[in-house]
Amino acid sequence: MRNAGPIGSPTDPFASVPLPTSGVSRRPRIEALPPGVSRDIFGPQDGQEPRPAGGQAGQSGQSGQSGGAPPPVAPQPWPMKDKEPSPVFGSPPPSPPPSEPEPPRRRRLLPGLAALVAVLAVLAYVVPAMLMSGAVLRGTRVGGVDIGGLTVTQAADKLRAELAPKLAKPVVVEIGDKQDTVQPDEAGVELDVVGTIGEAPSGFPGPIEVWRGLTGTTDIKPRITVDASQLTRTVEGLAESVDKPAREGRVTFSGLTPKAREPEDGVLLDREDAVTRIGEAFLAGRGTVALNLRPAKPVSTPEGVRAAETRAKRAVSAPVTLTLGGRQAQLTPAVIAANLTYAPGDDGSLVPRFDAKAALATVENTLVDAAQQPRDATYAIVGGKPVLVPARKGRGIDADRFARDVLGALESGTGRTVPVTLASVAPEVTTDQVRGLGIKEKVAEFSTTFDCCLPRVTNIQRMAQQLDGRIVRPGETFSLNEATGRRTAEDGYVVAGQFVGGRMVQIVGGGVSQFATAMYNAVFLGGFEQVQRTPMDYYSDRYPAGRDAALLYPSVDLKWRNDSEHGVLVKTAYTGTSVTVTLWGTKRYDRVEAVESERRDPTPFRSETSSAPGCVPSAGQQGFTVDVTRVFHQDGKVVKRDKKVTTKYRPQAQVTCTATGR
């Protein structure tokens, strides 16, 4: 191997093995094989029988016995193990098989399919969205009424026609062991159509809304409003029918006999709570609601009443003698009894109250000459003109001191002679106070009529008597409730029917709203400032629409302000069928006009049958809304215009009284 050149790696692993030159065999002699390579791959060696295909010696021997030549042996692959074979003679490891190239046609189809899907998706949204736009979303329902696909105007009309009647369900109120029914119109319940439709999806819908419009429904809860002021008036009517005020102990006289009235507990409707509960019941759609009554306790005690009754018997046991100089007069037991009462004090006892002015009216002329008595300044209407009657100072008996002296004599039980003294008495209204007020002409007048001979007529006339001659000074605010006070039997008022909160109730002083209406219209036409006025619940054709006034002590009042520079004299007159209020002063305007709008929003009335005691039949009157604007004219032109005043009247039910209730 000396001087041998470099040997390149043969491609055949056995190319470098020398072949034998003898004639014995042409097969190569294998000196060594790589590990794991069998010699059998080269066929049988010298002196070795070919191995049968089965590879077992026994089978080979049997074949030789049969005398058949053995089949040629097919070359066998190298045996493989579980792991990759080691590289032979430094051969490089096999390369991974190349990936199969993507077919060109698929690469061209995929983008086209994606674009087609996107276009179809856009069309699936845009087409129905365009069809749904400009209307309420399909499938939208309000209280079971389907308004989907309608315009806003169409939806509003459908809700008014179909849903509003469904919401007109009354609420039954339970007050103790009594029940009453509050109708939707009595509570001012209305369907807020605009607010309800505002909750519904409309316009150009989004993808989610399109899907919901195509596959589902959208339920909207109807929005309902309750007129709190109207409901408050209704609750006041309920209260008047169920209230049982605490009765105070009291001692009065029937002739000369003391009559004791024991104190009693009472109950009153919780008005604020009732307004809240009834309003919530209408909004929630509940049919029945229980209202709360709260206890009312009297101040007086039974012990105080019994003690006062004993004192009252002693008070009328004999007359009281009044002396003034050489003159005498007697308060008879009958006069004492007519002007003496025992009313609750602060500690539960009853204290005496003596009407000294009324008692003096029976005896003062005996003790004091009429020419000496004081006189208030006032006006008398003579020949259609106000004439000033000046005030006059005088001498008279001091009423407050007289009352203290008489009560002392009645309570002491010892002496019943009371000396009285005259004093200089100034008039309550002086001439100077009324002289410069500019009361010189008629400013306004208004009359209303009524049916004769009803109990309410007595109340109207009594209120007219109380207010006749009242002077309202410049800048003064006049309150009708403050001027007359609580209407009581002691003041000459009687029990009569009056609508309170839509209900006819029997109260002392019922019917005086008619006098309030007469005064309101006189003030309206006189151009004076309106401060507080509550319209009646129902329209009556005996009054101008939008120009009536309710009155209920103490909550419902009529107030107006004399905003002129002159005084106003209130004069009243009445007959058996009418009452008139006239205002005298100085006119500021040639004419004050009431501009009345067309009546709108008519509300139909319901029909009902009643067997309740005292049922009053009614023909029924539809409700409506009206505007009234006051316009002031001077020198042939409009100089001022008030803001319009809107009055909404309830529908008055048609009531049929059954035979048992009449």
UniProtKB/TrEMBL annotation:
Residues 69-78, 90-101 have a biased composition (Pro residues). The chain crosses the membrane at residues 109-131. Residues 50-63 have a biased composition (Low complexity). Residues 196-286, 312-418 form the YoaR-like putative peptidoglycan binding domain. Residues 1-106, 595-619 are annotated as: Disordered. InterPro entries: Glycopeptide_resist_protein (IPR052913), Vancomycin_resist_VanW (IPR007391), YoaR-like_PG-bd (IPR022029). Coiled coil: none annotated. Keywords: Membrane, Transmembrane, Transmembrane helix. This is Vancomycin resistance protein YoaR, contains peptidoglycan-binding and VanW domains. It comes from Nonomuraea pusilla. Pfam families: PG_binding_4, VanW.
